Amino acid sequence: FQRWRVMDQLGPTFESFWAKGPVGGTLLGGTLGFFFGSGPIGRMTGVTVGALIGGIGGVYAGAEEALTGEVWIPRRRRIEREINQYFDILEYLKHTRLFEQARRRAIFQEGIDPLEFIERHSAEGDERMMMRRELEQMKREEVVHGNAEEAKIKRINQMLRVISETKEAQAIGPYTLQALQHHAAKSSTLYGVDPYGAWMDIFRALPSKDRPFFPEFMKASPEERERILQIVPEDQRRIYQAKWGLEVDERPDLEAYFSERYLPGADWAGWSPDVHLEDIKYKVIKNEALDMTEFGIWEDVANRAQMLQLEAPDIHQPNQDVHDIRRELHKITRGMGLEDVFIEVVMIPDKLGVYVDIDISDDMMERFREALHEQPELAFA
Questions:
Q1: CA dist., res. 5 & res. 17, Å (int)
Q2: What's the per-residue H, E or C state across the chain?
Q3: Model pLDDT for residues 264-305, shown as the tens digit of each residue
Q4: What is the C-alpha separation between 287 and 79, in angstroms, rounded?
């Protein structure tokens, strides 16, 4: 699936050297070159070539930073970020569309508006979260001030247990269930995630290769934060700004965004729940001759994508004027087009509807930290 070449390793290595500037690039490039030579002459040649590549690259990167006022990012990394953001927004639009389609069916066939359902249970979850925080604060104060009476601590623990166990199990129909699933999916994209929300939701929205950095960046000092905001992808800045209590950037305006990019029409087959956007993403990456593993795409996706008949779009080729973009976005986000999509629902035998354990809004930060500490491999899942 992946043919490794020397330059697949050396390219990213030298790019990291160039980010250190001319002096740093020269020293690091020369050091690397030393280990590629054989014998005194070979090593001297390696040092010279490595230092030249590192130094010239450092000069180029420094000049670009001076001209743009922004941190230099390698071209291949910029393309990677553009592709990731593009497909993240498509995922958001797709699940917004499927949510609206399932919502309409739930309203007409099951008598439930999933949006009202979500809002009601989110409010109840927020109330439980506030109560839990107040009780945990009371418990901490008791312990810190040395007033921890065993009976009082026991009562607080009982109340915390009741709050944790108080979850409503409600029978819902298959279309309501589908709507809930698509709402959760669109809220798990970087475009749709609440930057002030729970850590677990944000963690799911991040690309797998960026997840290990999230808990570490949360501990950054005020001085480090400015640098982090300069180097993280644009669509991740809002998360860190929100968590650090800074002013949060606006999300990209979709009409402006697609005025410079390809927007699939409302009848595009890629909006179907039977099509994985990751398969189309694979084709775009392949056309750019980029490393699939940098995107977390492996052989199983490649095999599936090769059977997909859809062509990869040229994402940087705008295909509609501003009025068409507005119209198509409205049709997509309102769930119009491709109304005959087939969605398979697994029903529970002899049960009316599907039973869902509801805990929509819950502060998972502490549980997330504990799980990550006990199972660090979760960061790469």
A1: 19
A2: CCCCCHHHHHHHHHHHHHCCHHHHHHHHHHHHHHCCCCHHHHHHHHHHHHHHHHHHHHHHHHHHHHHHCCCCCCHHHHHHHHHHHHHHHHHHHHHHHHHHHHHHHHHHHHCCCHHHHHHHHHHHHHHHHHHHHHHHHHHHHHHHCCCCCHHHHHHHHHHHHHHHHCCEEEEECHHHHHHHHHHHHHCCCCCCCCCCCCHHHHHHHCCHHHCCHHHHHCCCCHHHHHHHHHHCCHHHHHHHHHHCCCCCCCCCCHHHHHCCCCCCCCCCHHHCCCCCHHHHHHHHHHHCCCCHHHHCCCHHHHHHHCCCCCCCCCCCCCCCCHHHHHHHHHHHHCCCCCCCCCCCCCCCCCCCCEEEEECCCCCCHHHHHHHHHHCHHHHHC
A3: 998 898 999 999 999 999 999 888 888 888 787 877 787 888
A4: 12
* Amino acid 292: pLDDT: 82
Q: Specify whether the CB–CB gap between 283 and 312 falls below 8 A.
A: yes
Around 171, how many Cα atoms within 13 Å sit in the side-chain half-sphere? Answer: 7
* pLDDT confidence bin for 99, thresholds 50/70/90: very high
- What CA–CA distance (Å, rounded) separates 248 from 228? 15
> What interhelical angle do 39-68 and 21-34 show, nearest 10?
160
**C-beta of residue 168 within 8 angstroms of C-beta of residue 358:** yes
Residue type, 142: E
Residue 216 CA to residue 213 CA, distance in Å, equals 5
d(CA 263, CA 50): 44
Separation in Å, CA 8 to CA 14, 27, 55:
11, 21, 20
Of 138, 65, 128, the closest CA to residue 363 belongs to 128
Residue 249 clears pLDDT 80, i.e. is over it: yes
